[in-house]
Design a protein that fits this description.
The protein is an alpha/beta fold. It has 9 helices and 9 strands. It has a 6-stranded mixed β-sheet with strand order 5-6-7-3-8-9. Strands 2-1-4 form a 3-stranded antiparallel β-sheet, covered by helices on one side. The longest helix has 16 residues. The chain is globular and about 50 Å long.
Length: 248
């Protein structure tokens, strides 16, 4: 299967702190891939380097067969991005941010339909600052999907959403996956990871602890569910973390 993007030997440091340490990834087209780890594990830095927002110390990145820095303009048409803390201009309405985003791309999705799907149609005249945290989160996902991308990066996509809204987002993303969209996401919700992801990678201190299908990751641990397995791999609660490599 053809890869959507490839990362080889990615390393990024901040002074003496190693944020990402020799990361290798191959994300297949049409796949939903989850990058997991506690805060500070290196997820955000890895994504920023992959997108060309930050410059890695070493390593190579090929995104849709292009260089994320040199081919930024071409990639702009094919990649959607939703960051956990998306910053929108002050005093702009939901409709205005959608129309603006729509105007920047050649093959944009129908933003009005996206607002309906994400239950934001009634808020289109509201300023973004008037939205609740969950509504702003949904809007950031809408904005990431308006370009009709081949590949989308979603950072903690359902933070702040209630259970019903989260499941509706999952259902729509599954539909997009079935249509060929490649999705790269981060999440702290293990039910979300299990519902959406084909494969996952767990980072700890910038290094890969395990990378495989969800079922294989669970099987390689000493637990029978992803949440406990995740805590075990990351060593967040289990004192036996030092023995993790015996299972991987």
């Amino acid at each position: 299967m053809e890869n959507a993007f490839t990362v080889k030997g990615l390393r990024k440091t901040y002074g003496s702190v190693v944020a990402v340490d020799n990361l290798d990834l191959e994300i297949r087209k049409g796949e939903v891939f989850g990058l997991l780890g506690h805060n500070g594990a290196g997820k955000s830095t890895a994504i920023e380097c992959i997108l060309g927002v930050k410059t890695p110390d070493s390593g190579t990145i090929e995104l849709l067969k292009m260089n994320p820095v040199k081919d930024r303009k071409q990639l702009f048409e094919k990649v959607g991005v939703q960051f956990q803390s998306s910053n929108f201009p002050d005093k702009i309405t939901v409709q205005e941010i959608c129309e603006l985003t729509h105007s920047l791309y050649k093959n944009s999705k129908d933003w009005k339909r996206l607002l309906e799907i994400f239950e934001l149609e009634s808020k289109k005249k509201n300023q973004v600052t008037e939205l609740s945290g969950g509504e702003r989160q949904k809007l950031s996902v809408v904005v990431a999907l308006i370009p009709n991308p081949e590949l989308v990066f979603l950072d903690e996509l359902t933070t702040g959403l209630d259970t019903k809204a989260r499941r509706e987002v999952w259902k729509y993303l599954q539909t997009l996956k079935d249509q060929g969209l490649t999705i790269f996401l981060t999440s702290h919700y293990m039910d979300e990871v299990q519902a959406l992801c084909d494969r996952i990678c767990i980072l700890k201190k910038g290094q890969v602890i395990v990378m495989d299908t969800v079922s294989a990751v669970i099987k390689k641990s000493k637990y029978d569910n992803l949440e406990d397995a995740y805590l075990w791999y990351t060593g967040e609660e289990d004192p036996e973390y030092e023995n993790v490599q015996n299972y991987v």
